[in-house]
């Protein structure tokens, strides 16, 4: 009976998290970045301050891990064109030219952070390959010149 209660609670957390926090992001890749940033890379635990006020740490962790895994799969299921569109949409929300962001992501290999722990290497490598191609394309683009007045 406890596992059914935990499942119900995790489902409530997932529904609350997706409705209140993930819905604000313009793309699946943006959602993936957001969830990945909620993971402590030292411990592997996902934390969310607002959810932690209403739910136990283990339930929040399990629910956010589930979201991370599903979003990772969803991004990989998208076409390369859709992945490029999503990446550009994510970068468009920042105050820095996309080419600069792309160069930083390539230099730091930030995209490695997007993979849930325990993901098979062939899926991880597929995402890395796709994002490297897209990031190199974006990095090669020069931002438009702004007239100085």
How is this structure best described in words?
The model has no long low-confidence stretch (mean pLDDT 89). Helix 1 crosses helix 4, helix 2 packs antiparallel against helix 4 and helix 5 crosses helix 7. The protein is built from seven helices and no strands. It has one domain. The chain is 65% helix and 0% strand. It is globular, with a radius of gyration of 17 Å. By secondary structure, it is an all-alpha fold.
| Radius of gyration, whole Å | 17 Å
Shape: globular
Structural class: mainly alpha
End-to-end C-alpha gap: 69 Å
What helical percentage do the residues reach?
55-70%
N-to-C SSE string, H for helix and E for strand: HHHHHHH
Strand % is under 5%
Largest β-sheet summary: none
Query: Mean pLDDT score, rounded?
Result: 89
Helix count equals 7
Number of strands: 0
Low-confidence stretches: none
Kindly list the characteristics that best describe this protein.
149 residues; globular
List the helices and strands and how they pair.
Layout: H1 2-20, H2 28-37, H3 49-52, H4 57-77, H5 80-92, H6 98-108, H7 121-139
Helix pairs in contact: 1-4, 2-4, 5-7, 6-7
What is this structure, in a nutshell?
With 149 residues, the chain is an all-alpha fold.
């Amino acid at each position: 009976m406890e596992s059914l209660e935990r499942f119900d609670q995790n489902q409530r957390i997932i529904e609350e998290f997706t409705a209140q926090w993930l819905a604000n992001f313009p793309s699946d890749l943006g959602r993936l970045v957001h969830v990945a940033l909620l993971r402590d890379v030292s411990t592997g635990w996902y934390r969310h301050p607002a959810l932690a006020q209403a739910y136990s740490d283990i339930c929040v962790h399990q629910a956010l891990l589930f979201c991370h895994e599903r979003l990772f799969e969803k991004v990989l299921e998208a076409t390369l064109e859709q992945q490029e569109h999503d990446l550009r949409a994510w970068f468009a929300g920042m105050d820095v030219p996309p080419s600069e962001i792309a160069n930083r992501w390539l230099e730091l290999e930030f995209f490695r952070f997007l993979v849930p722990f325990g993901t098979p290497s062939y899926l991880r490598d597929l995402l890395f390959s796709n994002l490297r191609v897209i990031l190199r394309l974006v990095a090669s683009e020069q931002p438009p010149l702004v007239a100085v007045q």
